[in-house]
UniProtKB/TrEMBL annotation:
Pfam families: Sulfate_transp (PF00916). It comes from the Bacteria. Residues 17-171 form the SLC26A/SulP transporter domain. The chain crosses the membrane at residues 20-39, 51-76, 96-113. It is found in: Membrane. This is SulP family inorganic anion transporter. It comes from Mycolicibacterium brumae. Keywords: Membrane, Transmembrane, Transmembrane helix. One of its GO terms (biological process) is transmembrane transport. One of its GO terms (cellular component) is membrane. Its main location: membrane. It is a multi-pass membrane protein.
């Protein structure tokens, strides 16, 4: 068991690089957490809380400075479907918190049992495919926000096909874009 007092005392004073790294991680985590929550169908504020809690807990329990603890798109995408399949309301913060606690507990058990060593047997091709699949899922989830057309298909590829077949229903709203200031004429 790690003695937290000894671990903190052994860290020394924060260096400039530590502050810069923390700032860079924070600047990435805030919009990333909000975006992942939005992609998962949750309130973006929940993404902020999940990013804060996971970072604090991860930094207190990790044994290496090489590990970055933050929210992930894979968990964000699967969380809503897990709650829905279990018959729970995904908009209820209590259900989301309960899922987070259960997932955290399972991850702690897997870590204690050293299941991370299994990842040594997963090839780069599999990880690349997994990452590409998550990217396609994110793009499919953003079709409605980007085009104004909400596909009815539950299949990811079906969403793309349906959206492309309904180009005439797309609403490309440009009113939210910043307007250019008129150029001043020189006399």
């Amino acid at each position: 068991m790690i003695n937290p007092v000894r671990a903190v005392a052994g860290l020394g004073r924060p260096q400039v690089g530590d502050v810069v790294a923390g700032l860079a991680n924070g600047l990435f985590s805030v919009p990333g957490g909000m975006a992942y929550a939005n992609v998962g169908g949750f309130n973006p504020v929940a993404g902020l809380y999940s990013g804060m809690v996971s970072t604090i807990v991860g930094s207190a329990l990790s044994r290496t400075v090489l590990m970055v603890t933050t929210v992930t798109s894979a968990l964000a995408l699967s969380s809503r479907s897990v709650l829905t399949d279990a018959g729970l309301d995904h908009t209820d913060p209590a259900n989301v918190a309960a899922l987070a606690i259960v997932v955290g507990a399972v991850m702690l058990v897997f870590g204690a049992l050293k299941f991370g060593a299994i990842m040594d047997f997963v090839s780069n091709a599999v990880m690349t495919g997994f990452t590409a699949g998550i990217a396609v899922q994110i793009l499919a989830g953003a079709i409605g926000d980007a085009t104004g057309y909400r596909p009815h298909s539950h299949n990811t590829i079906g969403r793309f096909v349906e959206a492309l077949g309904q180009l005439h229903q797309w609403v490309l709203d440009t009113s939210s874009r910043p307007k250019r200031s008129p150029r001043l004429r020189r006399s």
